[in-house]
Specification:
By secondary structure, this protein is mainly beta. It is built from two helices and 13 strands, in the order ββαβββββαββββββ. β4 and β5 form a beta hairpin. It is elongated and about 70 Å long. The two termini are 34 Å apart. The mean pLDDT is 91.
């Protein structure tokens, strides 16, 4: 939606994604892998074990853009995503070693540990919020543009991210563009 002689824009969007996962468990890994958490999702057919899962993502976002001058604008966005279902990477396994407390409390040399391999496990629900801001400025003398972006995201898994990005967009002729980028992410 445009206002103010098309110098101000408000945008919004909604999205839905549905995924089906069907991952074959490598037969060489199968004998070492503890699969208890996924027993009801593993199917055995013709000697091949297949891990199956489903996932849904619902997303909504709203944004605001404002032209500041002939050569610059700002853009703000807020987005929310609700994910549910199978969010694991089916090809990731981890090796975990269990050491008994009796051994830890003793003064024995060496380590006695029981190791097991597990498929990656993640919660079945995730809610994420992302906020971003962007400033774009055209440098007429160089026929170039500078983009300064910041994005913050957080979720109910306790993951918070900050990303700062600076892009320089420089046309070099014959339809070619060079875009050096500096990005900091934490």
């Amino acid at each position: 939606l445009d206002f103010n002689q098309k110098l101000t824009s408000v945008k919004f969007g909604f999205g839905y994604t549905s995924n089906s996962v069907s991952a074959i468990i490598d037969h060489d890994l199968d004998i070492y892998l503890t699969k208890i958490a996924f027993e009801d999702q593993i199917e055995l057919r013709d000697g091949i074990r297949t891990l199956r899962g489903k996932r849904q993502d619902w997303a909504a976002n709203i944004g605001f853009s404002q032209v500041l001058s002939k050569s610059s604008l700002i853009d703000f966005n807020v987005g929310y995503t609700h994910s549910s279902g199978f969010m694991e990477n089916p090809y990731k396994a981890m090796r975990v070693y269990f050491i008994g407390p009796d051994f830890l409390n003793s003064n024995q040399a060496g380590t006695r540990a029981n190791g097991q391999a597990f498929l990656e496990q993640r919660p079945d629900i995730r809610n994420q919020i992302a906020i971003s801001a962007k400033y774009i400025h055209h440098i007429n003398v160089l026929d170039a543009a500078a983009h300064l972006d910041y994005k913050f995201s957080t979720d109910d898994w306790g993951i918070n991210t900050n990303t700062f990005t600076l892009d320089w967009i420089q046309p070099v002729g014959n339809g070619w563009i060079v875009t050096p980028r500096v990005r900091y992410h934490s």
